[in-house]
Amino acid sequence: MAGSWQLARRTLSGPSWVRGSGPAVLNRLRDAAVVRPAFLTAAEEETLSRELEPDLRRRRYEYDHWDAFCGATIAGLSLLSPSVMRLVHTQEPGEWLELLLEPRSLYILRDSARYDFSHEILRDEESFFGELRVPRGRRISVICRSLPEEMGPGEPGQPPPAC
């Protein structure tokens, strides 16, 4: 499957990890929604997946997530399977952005992309990036959130509060 995905991926032209409803939204969110493909090597992805697997087997899938106590930036590592993340403006649903998240990529959402847009990973049957079908398999997402600006790193010798 990975071979055919990579072949299909090469048919896209230009900076093709982000697409949107129009030039205005693409320009406005240029620095607020970023994809860095091949952020990890295949060996790093394998090591990280192997390290996470035992802990993930003991946990139930989290359908919802919380981040109301967290800061203005979210960064996520996408592992194992390609996917498409869709962001839709909460007040203007005609404004949207889609991010193509290849395995081993890093995505960063900050400021307006984080607070003014809903975000979701598309289900397999909806998983298209433009005309390109993006087959979904099992995926792991490792998400890091910044602390709110008013929150410091915590007391000396103590870990920072969880976000």
From TrEMBL:
Cofactor names: Fe(2+)
Taxonomic superkingdom: Eukaryota
A cellular component term, taken from the record's GO annotations: mitochondrial matrix
Alphabetized InterPro entries for the sequence: AlkB-like_sf (IPR037151), ALKBH7-like (IPR032870)
Gene Ontology biological-process annotations: DNA damage response; fatty acid metabolic process
Coiled coil: none
Protein name per Swiss-Prot or TrEMBL: AlkB-like protein 7
Record organism: Rhinolophus ferrumequinum
